[in-house]
Amino acid sequence: MTTEYVAFLRGINVGGHKLIKMADLVRLFESFGFHNISTYIASGNVLFETAEMDADAVTKRIEEGLTKALGYEVKVILRTISQIEDFVSLDPFGGVEPAENARLYVTFLADEPSSTLKLPYESSNGELQILRKRDRDLCWLLFLSPTARTVDGMAFVEKEFGKASTTRNWNTVQKITAL
Q: Which residue ranges make up each domain of the chain?
């Protein structure tokens, strides 16, 4: 029996830093003993199967293997494919009116956060809204403007919920379930 996982790698191929080709990433995951490996876009989304049921052990194997192979640390946030499918099926952004300048994001947290921020949260200027948290997954949106950029929203989320996290846009999360 195998478990299907998706590993979300934090901070690779962003702004010209921590560069790795997806074909090389697939080879690394093969060397870690995983099977049926595929990637989705170059931001570090790796789908794979393993007989290992202990998610913490799988995460540790990936992080240690990446550090050894790449020479730098990469935080890995691991979810089962079924966890992602369940999350998407909840339609966590339901009721959000689409807007051209709105961006929908999911931040995957490594651990249960200790944040006391009352949700839903809206910044004083209305540009950032943190809509809900389910388990260790956080849904938020940002209305882009000259004063509100994605990195600013991510900085606020990380300050409040911790840097042991990684963020993906909602379209990416939905497409992962289709793979």
A: 3-84, 93-178
Q: CB–CB of 142/148 below 8 Å?
A: yes
Model pLDDT for residues 51-66, shown as the tens digit of each residue? 999 999 999 999 999 9
Above 80 in pLDDT, residue 9?
Answer: yes
CA distance 105 to 179: 19
Please state the rounded mean pLDDT for residues 146-153: 85
Domain 3-84 falls under CATH 3.20.20.120:
no
User: Tell me, what amino acid is at 150?
Assistant: T
Q: Which SS3 state, helix, strand or coil, does residue 153 take? A: helix
CA distance 6 to 82: 10
Instruction: Report DSSP letters for 79-94, one per residue.
Output: EEHHHHHHHHHT-TTT
